[in-house]
UniProtKB/TrEMBL annotation:
<dbReference type="Pfam" id="PF08241">
    <property type="entry name" value="Methyltransf_11"/>
</dbReference>
<dbReference type="InterPro" id="IPR013216">
    <property type="entry name" value="Methyltransf_11"/>
</dbReference>
<protein>
    <submittedName>
        <fullName>Methyltransferase domain-containing protein</fullName>
    </submittedName>
</protein>
<dbReference type="GO" id="GO:0008757">
    <property type="term" value="F:S-adenosylmethionine-dependent methyltransferase activity"/>
</dbReference>
<keyword id="KW-0808">Transferase</keyword>
<keyword id="KW-0489">Methyltransferase</keyword>
<dbReference type="GO" id="GO:0032259">
    <property type="term" value="P:methylation"/>
</dbReference>
<dbReference type="InterPro" id="IPR029063">
    <property type="entry name" value="SAM-dependent_MTases_sf"/>
</dbReference>
<feature type="domain" description="Methyltransferase type 11">
    <location>
        <begin position="58"/>
        <end position="157"/>
    </location>
</feature>
Length: 269
């Protein structure tokens, strides 16, 4: 299994290994890594009491399908994982049901935008892990989730790291972990340096797949007449830095800079 010091996407080719075989090996390692990471996801949502027994589940931004597989293992009656990355969906379609044949009939994976899913109130639970900070049209996606959830259905979100937090740029600009890079460096300079590194024009955070999520923007997405908040937790985890940042984020001016993660369970009214 890949470790945090051996990120799956950084695995190097073995002697004589083709690019296709390397990608397959990276995909398998990434799936195993994400499957282990589901335990962290649920631990940060501890106390949310998510019951999957017999539930119809949609995973938004399912990637390689690890969280979808976990939902099926927890008793979901039907799980649909969707993502816009066709390579990851191809892996999920081929490998995830094959790894759990007893539940293969429960799981399906599609490379499709959420707006293309037909129907209303056809899911009991929508999951979204480590995807919310990348979605460009957040109000539109939240509206689609509201359409697809039955009244009383749950929207379960874990999003991290947020853009203005210490490493919220995901290393996507300069490829290195520079604290508060997106917050402190003037954007014209940042985009110019990133453009040179990637050898393409980068003129916005969206060009590197980031949406500049802040806690205030997150809260503003969920109108009280449409959603009830069952759980909302910031900086979930046990790292000492998170404890320090949790104290500092109480100051409104520091909240965007000191909020690393948001874990939430919203109930569709």
């Amino acid at each position: 299994m890949a470790t945090m010091t051996e990120a799956p996407w950084r695995l190097q080719p073995a002697p004589g290994e083709t690019q296709h075989d390397l990608q397959q090996r990276r995909d398998r390692a990434y799936f195993a890594w994400q499957l282990a990471d589901t335990e962290v996801f649920w631990r940060r949502l501890s106390g949310a009491a998510i019951d999957f027994a017999g539930a119809r589940v949609l995973e938004l931004g399912c990637g390689h399908g690890a969280l979808s597989a976990d939902a099926a293992a927890k008793g979901a009656a039907r799980v649909l994982g969707i993502d816009l990355d066709d390579q990851r969906i191809a892996f999920a379609q081929q490998s995830v049901p094959a790894a759990d044949p007893d539940r293969a009939h429960v799981m399906a994976f599609r490379c499709v935008d959420i707006a293309a899913i037909e129907g209303e109130a056809c899911f009991d639970i929508v999951l979204c892990k480590d995807t919310f900070e990348h979605i460009t049209d957040l109000p539109g996606v939240v509206a689609e989730v509201h359409r697809l959830l039955r009244p009383g259905g749950l929207f379960v979100i874990g999003t991290s790291p947020l853009y203005y937090s210490p490493f919220g740029d995901h290393g996507r600009y300069l490829g290195s972990r520079i604290p508060w890079l997106g917050a402190l460096m003037p954007e014209p300079l940042l985009f110019r340096l990133a453009s040179a590194r990637h050898r393409t024009t980068i003129s916005s955070a969206a060009d590197v797949g980031l949406n500049k999520m802040t806690p205030a923007r997150f809260r503003g997405l969920f109108a009280p007449h449409e959603w009830n908040v069952r759980m909302l937790r910031y900086n979930a985890g046990d790292k000492p830095l998170l404890r320090v940042l949790s104290v500092l984020r109480r100051l409104r001016v520091l909240e965007p800079l000191c909020t690393v993660s948001i874990y939430a369970v919203l109930v569709r009214r």
